[in-house]
Model the fold of this input.
Amino acid sequence: MLYFLQKILPRLWKANGMMKRLLIVGIVTGLFTACAFPQDQTLKAVRVDKAPAVDGDPSDGAWAKAPKLDLTFPKVSLKAVYTDDSICLLAKWPDSTFSIVRGGSWNWDGTKWITTQAAAPKDGPRMFEDGIAFMWNMTIPGFEGLGCMNKCHVDVQPGKGKTVSIFLDAGVADMWHMKAARSLPATRASQSGEVKIGKDGQPTAGAFLLVGYCDDEWMGEWSDANVPAGGRYGDKGERMYIGNRNKEKTAPLYMEKEPTDYLDAMTLHQSEIDAGEAVEVSGLTAEKVGAIWAKYNTLGARVPECILRKPEGSRADISQAAVWKDGVWTTEFRRDLDTGHPNEDVIFKDLTRPYLFGVAIMDNCGGDDHITSGVIALVFDQAQ
Ligand SMILES: [Ca+2]
Ligand SMILES: [Ca+2]
Ligand SMILES: [Ca+2]
Done:
Protein backbone atom coordinates (compact mmCIF):
# COMPACT_ATOMS: atom_id res chain seq x y z
CA MET A 1 0.00 0.00 0.00
CA LEU A 2 2.83 2.37 0.89
CA TYR A 3 4.53 1.63 -2.43
CA PHE A 4 1.24 2.33 -4.17
CA LEU A 5 0.88 5.68 -2.42
CA GLN A 6 4.44 6.80 -2.98
CA LYS A 7 5.17 5.49 -6.49
CA ILE A 8 2.09 4.40 -8.38
CA LEU A 9 -0.59 6.86 -7.32
CA PRO A 10 1.39 10.00 -8.28
CA ARG A 11 2.12 8.58 -11.74
CA LEU A 12 -1.52 7.61 -12.26
CA TRP A 13 -2.62 11.04 -11.18
CA LYS A 14 -0.24 12.81 -13.53
CA ALA A 15 -0.98 10.58 -16.47
CA ASN A 16 -4.78 10.89 -16.38
CA GLY A 17 -7.42 13.54 -16.93
CA MET A 18 -9.95 14.80 -14.41
CA MET A 19 -12.56 12.05 -14.88
CA LYS A 20 -10.03 9.28 -14.43
CA ARG A 21 -8.56 11.10 -11.46
CA LEU A 22 -11.97 11.04 -9.80
CA LEU A 23 -12.05 7.29 -10.40
CA ILE A 24 -8.59 6.95 -8.86
CA VAL A 25 -9.73 8.89 -5.79
CA GLY A 26 -12.64 6.47 -5.45
CA ILE A 27 -10.42 3.39 -5.77
CA VAL A 28 -7.85 4.73 -3.32
CA THR A 29 -10.52 5.72 -0.83
CA GLY A 30 -11.81 2.16 -0.93
CA LEU A 31 -8.32 0.77 -0.47
CA PHE A 32 -7.70 3.07 2.48
CA THR A 33 -10.87 1.96 4.14
CA ALA A 34 -10.21 -1.68 3.45
CA CYS A 35 -6.61 -2.20 4.34
CA ALA A 36 -4.29 0.75 4.63
CA PHE A 37 -4.96 1.89 8.15
CA PRO A 38 -6.32 -0.99 10.16
CA GLN A 39 -5.82 0.83 13.45
CA ASP A 40 -8.67 2.73 15.03
CA GLN A 41 -8.58 6.16 13.42
CA THR A 42 -10.50 7.95 16.15
CA LEU A 43 -8.86 10.18 18.72
CA LYS A 44 -11.17 10.65 21.67
CA ALA A 45 -10.76 13.90 23.62
CA VAL A 46 -11.75 13.43 27.24
CA ARG A 47 -13.23 16.29 29.23
CA VAL A 48 -11.11 17.39 32.24
CA ASP A 49 -11.59 20.17 34.79
CA LYS A 50 -8.02 21.40 34.57
CA ALA A 51 -5.88 21.50 31.45
CA PRO A 52 -2.47 19.86 31.74
CA ALA A 53 0.46 22.23 32.14
CA VAL A 54 2.20 22.75 28.81
CA ASP A 55 5.70 21.97 30.03
CA GLY A 56 6.80 18.84 28.17
CA ASP A 57 6.11 16.65 31.23
CA PRO A 58 3.10 14.38 30.59
CA SER A 59 2.73 13.22 34.21
CA ASP A 60 -0.38 15.43 34.68
CA GLY A 61 -3.42 13.54 35.97
CA ALA A 62 -5.44 14.76 32.99
CA TRP A 63 -3.43 12.69 30.51
CA ALA A 64 -3.98 9.51 32.56
CA LYS A 65 -7.73 9.82 31.84
CA ALA A 66 -7.32 10.03 28.06
CA PRO A 67 -7.24 6.94 25.80
CA LYS A 68 -4.20 6.63 23.57
CA LEU A 69 -4.38 6.40 19.78
CA ASP A 70 -1.34 4.50 18.51
CA LEU A 71 -0.69 5.05 14.83
CA THR A 72 1.70 2.79 13.00
CA PHE A 73 2.16 5.02 9.96
CA PRO A 74 3.61 7.37 10.88
CA LYS A 75 4.61 5.81 14.20
CA VAL A 76 3.18 8.19 16.76
CA SER A 77 0.89 7.95 19.76
CA LEU A 78 -1.67 10.67 20.44
CA LYS A 79 -3.92 11.74 23.32
CA ALA A 80 -6.41 14.59 23.60
CA VAL A 81 -8.22 16.29 26.49
CA TYR A 82 -10.41 19.39 26.61
CA THR A 83 -11.81 21.86 29.10
CA ASP A 84 -14.51 24.53 28.87
CA ASP A 85 -12.28 26.67 26.69
CA SER A 86 -9.25 24.69 25.53
CA ILE A 87 -8.11 21.60 23.63
CA CYS A 88 -4.81 19.93 24.54
CA LEU A 89 -2.91 17.28 22.59
CA LEU A 90 -0.11 14.96 23.66
CA ALA A 91 2.11 13.33 21.03
CA LYS A 92 4.96 10.88 21.42
CA TRP A 93 7.11 9.34 18.68
CA PRO A 94 10.54 7.81 18.17
CA ASP A 95 13.29 9.80 16.47
CA SER A 96 16.93 8.80 16.92
CA THR A 97 18.23 12.34 16.30
CA PHE A 98 17.48 15.66 17.99
CA SER A 99 17.46 17.81 14.86
CA ILE A 100 17.58 21.59 15.11
CA VAL A 101 20.53 22.38 12.80
CA ARG A 102 19.03 24.35 9.94
CA GLY A 103 20.76 24.66 6.57
CA GLY A 104 20.95 28.41 7.06
CA SER A 105 22.90 28.15 10.33
CA TRP A 106 26.41 29.60 10.28
CA ASN A 107 29.96 28.21 10.44
CA TRP A 108 33.16 30.29 10.61
CA ASP A 109 35.90 28.91 8.35
CA GLY A 110 38.67 31.15 9.74
CA THR A 111 38.18 34.02 7.30
CA LYS A 112 34.47 34.10 6.40
CA TRP A 113 31.02 32.78 7.34
CA ILE A 114 29.55 29.89 5.43
CA THR A 115 26.10 28.37 5.90
CA THR A 116 25.74 24.73 6.93
CA GLN A 117 23.98 24.07 3.63
CA ALA A 118 26.76 25.62 1.55
CA ALA A 119 29.39 23.73 3.54
CA ALA A 120 27.67 20.35 3.12
CA PRO A 121 28.58 17.92 0.34
CA LYS A 122 26.12 18.17 -2.57
CA ASP A 123 24.92 14.59 -2.16
CA GLY A 124 24.88 14.75 1.64
CA PRO A 125 21.76 15.07 3.80
CA ARG A 126 20.19 18.50 3.97
CA MET A 127 19.72 19.99 7.41
CA PHE A 128 16.21 21.04 8.43
CA GLU A 129 14.65 20.33 11.82
CA ASP A 130 12.34 17.84 13.48
CA GLY A 131 8.62 18.43 13.57
CA ILE A 132 5.08 17.21 13.76
CA ALA A 133 2.17 18.81 11.94
CA PHE A 134 -1.58 18.51 12.29
CA MET A 135 -3.68 19.45 9.27
CA TRP A 136 -7.27 20.12 10.34
CA ASN A 137 -9.82 20.06 7.61
CA MET A 138 -11.96 23.15 7.28
CA THR A 139 -13.33 23.18 3.72
CA ILE A 140 -11.20 20.82 1.62
CA PRO A 141 -13.34 18.73 -0.72
CA GLY A 142 -12.69 14.99 -0.39
CA PHE A 143 -10.63 15.29 2.80
CA GLU A 144 -12.63 12.44 4.33
CA GLY A 145 -11.19 10.10 1.67
CA LEU A 146 -7.50 10.89 1.22
CA GLY A 147 -6.90 13.31 4.08
CA CYS A 148 -3.90 15.61 3.74
CA MET A 149 -2.95 13.99 0.46
CA ASN A 150 -6.08 15.33 -1.15
CA LYS A 151 -4.74 18.85 -0.60
CA CYS A 152 -1.16 18.20 -1.64
CA HIS A 153 1.27 15.43 -2.44
CA VAL A 154 4.37 14.73 -4.47
CA ASP A 155 4.31 13.58 -8.07
CA VAL A 156 7.13 12.26 -10.24
CA GLN A 157 7.46 13.94 -13.62
CA PRO A 158 7.24 11.17 -16.23
CA GLY A 159 10.56 10.53 -17.97
CA LYS A 160 12.41 13.13 -15.93
CA GLY A 161 12.45 11.60 -12.48
CA LYS A 162 11.95 15.07 -11.05
CA THR A 163 9.52 15.49 -8.18
CA VAL A 164 6.86 18.15 -8.31
CA SER A 165 4.02 19.02 -5.97
CA ILE A 166 0.39 18.44 -6.87
CA PHE A 167 -1.69 20.95 -4.99
CA LEU A 168 -5.46 21.25 -4.86
CA ASP A 169 -6.38 24.93 -4.79
CA ALA A 170 -9.90 24.39 -3.49
CA GLY A 171 -10.49 24.46 0.23
CA VAL A 172 -8.78 25.63 3.41
CA ALA A 173 -7.19 23.73 6.27
CA ASP A 174 -5.78 24.81 9.60
CA MET A 175 -2.16 23.79 10.11
CA TRP A 176 -0.43 23.29 13.46
CA HIS A 177 3.23 23.07 12.57
CA MET A 178 5.86 22.30 15.18
CA LYS A 179 9.27 23.60 14.09
CA ALA A 180 11.87 22.23 16.51
CA ALA A 181 14.40 24.98 15.78
CA ARG A 182 12.18 27.94 14.96
CA SER A 183 8.88 27.86 16.89
CA LEU A 184 9.11 25.32 19.71
CA PRO A 185 11.96 26.89 21.76
CA ALA A 186 10.68 30.46 21.34
CA THR A 187 10.23 30.97 25.11
CA ARG A 188 13.03 28.92 26.66
CA ALA A 189 15.25 25.89 26.15
CA SER A 190 17.50 23.82 28.41
CA GLN A 191 19.44 20.57 28.23
CA SER A 192 20.41 17.89 30.74
CA GLY A 193 21.90 14.43 30.93
CA GLU A 194 24.80 13.02 28.99
CA VAL A 195 24.65 14.65 25.58
CA LYS A 196 26.22 13.02 22.55
CA ILE A 197 26.48 15.01 19.34
CA GLY A 198 27.26 13.64 15.87
CA LYS A 199 29.60 15.35 13.41
CA ASP A 200 26.55 16.72 11.60
CA GLY A 201 25.55 18.60 14.74
CA GLN A 202 22.58 16.36 15.62
CA PRO A 203 22.54 14.99 19.20
CA THR A 204 21.82 11.27 19.53
CA ALA A 205 21.64 11.17 23.35
CA GLY A 206 20.72 13.52 26.18
CA ALA A 207 17.58 15.41 27.18
CA PHE A 208 16.40 18.68 25.65
CA LEU A 209 13.45 20.72 26.92
CA LEU A 210 11.91 23.25 24.53
CA VAL A 211 9.09 25.57 25.58
CA GLY A 212 7.32 28.00 23.30
CA TYR A 213 4.86 27.75 20.45
CA CYS A 214 3.60 25.56 17.68
CA ASP A 215 3.60 27.68 14.54
CA ASP A 216 -0.03 28.40 13.65
CA GLU A 217 -0.57 28.34 9.88
CA TRP A 218 -3.25 27.59 7.30
CA MET A 219 -3.41 25.96 3.88
CA GLY A 220 -5.12 27.70 0.99
CA GLU A 221 -4.50 28.33 -2.68
CA TRP A 222 -1.07 27.78 -4.16
CA SER A 223 0.89 30.95 -4.85
CA ASP A 224 4.12 30.98 -6.87
CA ALA A 225 5.12 34.10 -4.98
CA ASN A 226 4.90 32.09 -1.76
CA VAL A 227 7.30 29.28 -2.82
CA PRO A 228 8.74 27.22 -1.14
CA ALA A 229 5.75 27.24 1.23
CA GLY A 230 3.46 27.43 -1.85
CA GLY A 231 -0.07 27.09 -0.49
CA ARG A 232 0.91 27.20 3.19
CA TYR A 233 0.64 30.54 4.97
CA GLY A 234 1.32 31.85 8.45
CA ASP A 235 -1.67 33.07 10.43
CA LYS A 236 -1.95 36.83 10.90
CA GLY A 237 0.32 38.42 13.49
CA GLU A 238 4.00 38.37 14.38
CA ARG A 239 5.79 35.05 13.95
CA MET A 240 8.14 33.64 16.58
CA TYR A 241 11.33 33.75 14.51
CA ILE A 242 13.21 36.13 12.27
CA GLY A 243 16.38 35.54 10.24
CA ASN A 244 19.72 35.80 12.02
CA ARG A 245 21.53 37.09 8.93
CA ASN A 246 22.72 40.42 7.58
CA LYS A 247 21.16 42.18 4.60
CA GLU A 248 23.72 40.70 2.22
CA LYS A 249 23.09 37.20 3.65
CA THR A 250 26.82 36.75 4.18
CA ALA A 251 26.98 36.57 7.98
CA PRO A 252 24.84 36.20 11.10
CA LEU A 253 23.63 39.33 12.85
CA TYR A 254 24.38 38.06 16.36
CA MET A 255 26.26 35.33 18.21
CA GLU A 256 26.29 34.59 21.91
CA LYS A 257 29.43 35.68 23.74
CA GLU A 258 29.48 32.82 26.24
CA PRO A 259 27.19 29.97 25.15
CA THR A 260 26.92 27.60 28.09
CA ASP A 261 25.98 24.38 26.30
CA TYR A 262 24.85 23.01 22.93
CA LEU A 263 21.20 24.05 23.25
CA ASP A 264 22.03 27.51 24.60
CA ALA A 265 24.29 28.06 21.58
CA MET A 266 21.73 26.67 19.13
CA THR A 267 18.82 28.85 20.36
CA LEU A 268 19.30 32.61 20.20
CA HIS A 269 16.50 34.54 21.91
CA GLN A 270 15.75 38.23 21.46
CA SER A 271 15.75 38.38 25.27
CA GLU A 272 19.40 37.24 25.30
CA ILE A 273 20.29 39.95 22.80
CA ASP A 274 18.44 42.53 24.93
CA ALA A 275 20.28 41.31 28.03
CA GLY A 276 23.67 41.82 26.37
CA GLU A 277 24.47 38.10 26.20
CA ALA A 278 24.94 38.28 22.42
CA VAL A 279 27.21 40.45 20.35
CA GLU A 280 26.69 42.07 16.94
CA VAL A 281 28.89 40.18 14.50
CA SER A 282 29.43 43.12 12.12
CA GLY A 283 31.39 45.00 14.77
CA LEU A 284 33.87 42.19 15.46
CA THR A 285 37.37 41.61 14.09
CA ALA A 286 38.06 38.24 12.44
CA GLU A 287 40.20 37.38 15.43
CA LYS A 288 37.37 38.05 17.88
CA VAL A 289 34.88 36.10 15.74
CA GLY A 290 37.33 33.19 15.68
CA ALA A 291 37.66 33.26 19.48
CA ILE A 292 33.87 33.14 20.03
CA TRP A 293 33.36 30.60 17.25
CA ALA A 294 35.82 28.30 19.04
CA LYS A 295 33.30 28.10 21.91
CA TYR A 296 30.51 27.09 19.53
CA ASN A 297 32.81 24.56 17.92
CA THR A 298 33.71 23.00 21.27
CA LEU A 299 29.99 22.57 22.03
CA GLY A 300 29.32 20.91 18.65
CA ALA A 301 27.03 23.84 17.76
CA ARG A 302 26.53 26.30 14.91
CA VAL A 303 25.40 29.91 15.09
CA PRO A 304 21.64 29.53 14.58
CA GLU A 305 19.71 30.63 11.52
CA CYS A 306 17.02 32.42 13.52
CA ILE A 307 16.42 34.81 16.37
CA LEU A 308 13.52 33.62 18.54
CA ARG A 309 10.95 35.98 20.05
CA LYS A 310 7.44 36.18 21.46
CA PRO A 311 4.82 35.89 18.70
CA GLU A 312 1.56 37.85 18.60
CA GLY A 313 -1.95 37.59 17.19
CA SER A 314 -3.47 34.60 15.44
CA ARG A 315 0.03 33.23 14.77
CA ALA A 316 0.49 32.78 18.53
CA ASP A 317 -2.64 30.71 19.28
CA ILE A 318 -0.94 27.38 20.04
CA SER A 319 1.29 26.90 23.09
CA GLN A 320 3.66 23.96 22.90
CA ALA A 321 6.38 22.37 25.00
CA ALA A 322 8.41 19.25 24.28
CA VAL A 323 11.20 17.04 25.47
CA TRP A 324 13.46 15.05 23.18
CA LYS A 325 15.14 12.44 25.35
CA ASP A 326 17.32 9.58 24.17
CA GLY A 327 15.49 9.02 20.89
CA VAL A 328 11.90 9.94 21.78
CA TRP A 329 9.95 13.16 21.29
CA THR A 330 7.19 13.87 23.86
CA THR A 331 5.19 17.04 23.33
CA GLU A 332 2.13 18.86 24.65
CA PHE A 333 -0.03 21.41 22.83
CA ARG A 334 -2.75 23.76 24.06
CA ARG A 335 -5.13 25.91 22.04
CA ASP A 336 -8.42 27.70 22.69
CA LEU A 337 -11.40 25.76 21.36
CA ASP A 338 -12.41 29.00 19.65
CA THR A 339 -9.49 31.26 18.74
CA GLY A 340 -11.71 33.95 17.25
CA HIS A 341 -9.88 33.51 13.92
CA PRO A 342 -12.28 31.36 11.89
CA ASN A 343 -10.68 32.13 8.51
CA GLU A 344 -7.38 30.48 9.44
CA ASP A 345 -8.15 28.23 12.42
CA VAL A 346 -10.46 25.26 12.89
CA ILE A 347 -13.04 26.30 15.50
CA PHE A 348 -14.17 23.55 17.88
CA LYS A 349 -17.61 24.94 18.56
CA ASP A 350 -19.95 22.01 18.00
CA LEU A 351 -18.53 19.33 20.30
CA THR A 352 -21.02 16.72 19.12
CA ARG A 353 -19.45 16.29 15.68
CA PRO A 354 -16.09 14.81 14.62
CA TYR A 355 -13.25 17.00 13.36
CA LEU A 356 -11.09 15.38 10.68
CA PHE A 357 -7.34 15.79 10.56
CA GLY A 358 -4.11 14.22 9.39
CA VAL A 359 -0.81 14.10 11.22
CA ALA A 360 2.68 14.16 9.73
CA ILE A 361 6.10 13.53 11.24
CA MET A 362 9.26 15.27 10.07
CA ASP A 363 12.66 13.83 10.98
CA ASN A 364 15.18 16.50 10.00
CA CYS A 365 13.23 17.24 6.86
CA GLY A 366 11.04 19.85 5.24
CA GLY A 367 9.03 20.34 2.10
CA ASP A 368 7.43 17.15 0.83
CA ASP A 369 9.61 14.68 2.74
CA HIS A 370 7.30 14.14 5.71
CA ILE A 371 5.38 10.95 6.53
CA THR A 372 1.63 11.52 6.62
CA SER A 373 -1.18 9.57 8.25
CA GLY A 374 -4.57 8.68 6.84
CA VAL A 375 -7.68 10.49 8.03
CA ILE A 376 -8.20 10.68 11.78
CA ALA A 377 -11.38 11.84 13.51
CA LEU A 378 -11.14 13.85 16.72
CA VAL A 379 -14.28 13.30 18.77
CA PHE A 380 -15.18 15.07 21.99
CA ASP A 381 -16.27 12.61 24.66
CA GLN A 382 -19.42 14.07 26.20
CA ALA A 383 -19.17 12.10 29.47
CA GLN A 384 -18.31 14.16 32.52
CA1 LIG B 1 15.42 13.93 14.22
CA1 LIG C 1 -4.52 31.22 14.65
CA1 LIG D 1 -4.17 28.42 11.85
Observations:
- The first strand starts at residue 42 and ends at 47.
- Residues 1-36 form one domain.
- Confidence is low (pLDDT under 50) at residues 1-39.
- The chain has nine helices and 24 strands.
